[in-house]
Amino acid sequence: MGINHTQKNSNLTIVAILLAGSFVAILNQTLLATAIPYIMSDLDLTENTAQWLTTIFMLVNGIMIPITAFLIETFTTRRLFITAMTIFAVGTVICGIAPNFFILMVGRIIQASGAGIMLPLMMTVFLIIFPLEKRGAAMGMVGLVISFAPAIGPSLSGWIIGNLPWRYMFFVILPIAIIDIVIAYFVLQNVTKQTYPKVDFLSIILSTLGFGGLLYGFSSAGNTGWGSIQVVVSLIVGTISLTFFILRQFKLEQPILEFRVFQYKTFTITTIIGMIVFIGLIGSETILPIYMQNMLDYSPLESGLMIMPGALLMGFMSPITGRIFDKVGARWLAITGLSIMTVTTFMFTNLTTTTSLTYITVVFGIRMFGMSMVMMPVTTAGLNELPIRLIPHGTAMNNTMRQVAASIGTAILVTIMTSAALNSADISNPTSMIHGVNVAFIVASILSIVSLLLSFFIKPLEYKVIEGEGS
To answer: Do 383 and 356 meet the contact criterion of CB atoms below 8 Å apart?
Structure first.
């Protein structure tokens, strides 16, 4: 009994340290959105240039995630976490004291290098330290962090910008990162197993060019157009590099990223569902504020407050859906959640110039409630199907696919929104622009129906089958 109690306390300590680190990393990503206009005026930047402060973070994050499986198998949990958090903290300091845009970009790149390791590491550790029947509740805590940080970020940065210089945004999160590093140094235990795979530098280069090229291409398309030379070249380089990267992984004895995880049917289905849900989440959080601010003349604060109730609801629900998952599995949670998500997405296809703030907030909140039943349960169901040795690769693959889906999906939805406007020449006409928003949500609704159909193929109570086989 004493050993179990000690082990339980040890697990709780690990959970608290990893959650705090991931929370700071995700919060940092959402803080900047409100502050960009102020940074633009302070550093004399154009909108396109300033946008790179968020784009570069996502790009480097996306490049780092595929490499995390290799890092997790090479370094101990403690060393990797402390190194990742230290890199993040150094980047945060550089951002806080940056005298110009170039130094600020360097800081963001360093921040993202550390942050990109955090989420896959946390998910891998949770799946190792918790037994199958408790993984849903554990991953519900991950969902709590992923939801709460974006809910708090815009409001916190809005308050800081209103009362203090924008640099204080970085100094607010720095103490949390430092405290987490110090605590981790003294109490964090090693739980991941080192297999010391060989370093295949060609794979790392191909992975960086592949995922980086695709993410850069799709994220740039919104600004420069799909036909621009930088977008076309980026997508071609990304596609070719990624093809060679995947082919190379099948030939290596110890691949950087194990694509054989897709041989597990449930993992493949749940990963596709997760990608579509993430497109729906990031896409709507991008399009709705544009619609509210540019077409209905709402303030940035009002569009931020519209997102908050739904994000908080999703955060509160994540641990609850995690516990439900442990009892009934992911199938019915996913079917229910995706049904709610599909209906509420359709409710955004009839927006007008007179749509009320209450309507948008309530529908968005119900939509996020539906998403909370899907996001972590389907992820956990897919990862539960993998053997322990493949879990680092499964978490890295899952996060990579979501990052790529969010980037590509958002770029496509924004392009549909602008090109589907009834009279694109008349940008000043709100009605024609709102038609584009409605068409974008019709496409999102069709994607949601696809994910709903896929959810029927998730095996019920998959973890109990595996548990039985293992006993």
So the answer is: no
**How many C-beta neighbours within 10 Å does residue 79 have?**
13
Q: What's the helix, strand, coil split of the chain in %, to 5?
A: 85, 0, 15
pLDDT reading at 155 higher than 90: no
Is the separation of the CB atoms in 332 and 275 below 8 Å? Answer: no
**DSSP states along 218-252:** HHHHHHH-TTSHHHHHHHHHHHHHHHHHHHHHHH-
Confidence of residue 2 (pLDDT cuts 50, 70, 90): very low
pTM of the model: 0.80
Say how far apart CA 17 and CA 187 lie, in whole Å: 9
Residue-level length of the chain: 471
Q: Is the pLDDT of residue 223 over 60?
A: yes
CATH for the 1-197 domain, from 3.40.50.170, 3.40.1170.60, 3.40.30.10, 1.20.1250.20: 1.20.1250.20
Task: Please report which confidence band the pLDDT of residue 78 belongs to, taking 50, 70 and 90 as the band edges.
Answer: very high
- Domain boundaries 257-471, corresponding CATH code: 1.20.1250.20
Tell me the CB-side half-sphere exposure of residue 134, using CA atoms within 13 A.
8
* Spatial separation of the C-alpha atoms in residues 150 and 259, rounded to whole Å: 30
Integer-rounded Cα Rg, in Å, for the chain is 22
In single-letter form, the type of residue at position 96 comes to G
369: helix, strand or coil: helix
Q: How far is CA 97 from the centre of its chain?
A: 27
- Average pLDDT (410-414) is 80
Per-residue pLDDT at 4: 57
Over residues 66-95, the mean pLDDT reads 93
Q: 1-197 and 257-471 share one CATH topology?
A: yes
Domains of the chain by residue range: 1-197, 200-254, 257-471
Please state, in angstroms and rounded to a whole number, the distance separating the CA atoms of residues 213 and 148. Answer: 30
- Higher-scoring residue by pLDDT: 167, 157: 167
Alpha carbon 282 to its chain centroid, in Å, reads 9
For 127, the 3-state DSSP assignment is helix
pLDDT in tens, 327-348: 888 899 999 999 999 999 999 9
Q: Indicate the helix (H) or strand (E) that contains 75.
A: none
* Three-state SS annotation for 158-188: HHHHHHCCCCHHHHHHHHHHHHHHHHHHHHC
Q: Where is mean pLDDT largest: 111-115, 153-157, 302-306, 411-415?
A: 111-115
> Containing H/E element for 143?
helix 135-163
